[in-house]
Amino acid sequence: MPPQDGLAVVTRDLHVSYRVYASRALNLRTLWNRRGRGREFREIKAVQGVSLQADKGEAIGVVGRNGSGKSTLLQAIAGLLPATSGSVFASSQPTLLGVGAALQPNLSGRRNIELGCLALGMSRTEVDEEMDDIIEFSGLEEFIDLPLRAYSSGMRARLQFSIATAIQPEILLIDEALAVGDDIFKVRSERRIQELLNGAGTVFLVSHALGVIRDVCTRVIWIERGEAIEDGEPESVLAAYQAFSKQQANGS
Q1: pTM of the predicted model, to two decimals?
Q2: Quick check: 39 and 33 in contact, CB under 8 A?
């Protein structure tokens, strides 16, 4: 059942688990002791019972420590990871933008723009018409015909964001992709996100850069051990998260 009018994303008691298998590098004694048994694995419960509703035009920051389940949550919303139980509904196909987004390292930035935009559903004519604007927005004019493998992580992030927002997606999921950009591009990307929100788009932003969360987001969800600990106004949620992080750092 799709979300009601005005809603972009709904998750209901969402659980996502996966298995991490033991290393294949086992010595002879270990193999003998484990004969007749399958490979050992550990089940990781990455998301545990998260229920949320995201309105159209809403910018939601997602914060939490490394390994807390933030990225897994976004991948589940994007449909890239199946729910172990519970459900995810979206009003349109979400676009996930992460630092590990798939680009072709042996192809030029220009060719990656072509392929990326075609994959987003643009026609070749539209790609040709938008190419100069995408390159200008990325700020990579002098590097655009070099192979992607020559780009820094920040340059790749700028290219990825420029491609992903070329069509103004209705639901944009950003996983740390802004954290590696320079200050000038962060300003540009924040403006582009605001344009998206003004057009009733919906943004989820995962970032350890809490300043960016404060500047961009109208709501923050704090994820800890796969659970949504707090969900509300940015200042109060971020204050609680920072206090918790300080306690953990002090060992209390």
Answers
A1: 0.80
A2: no
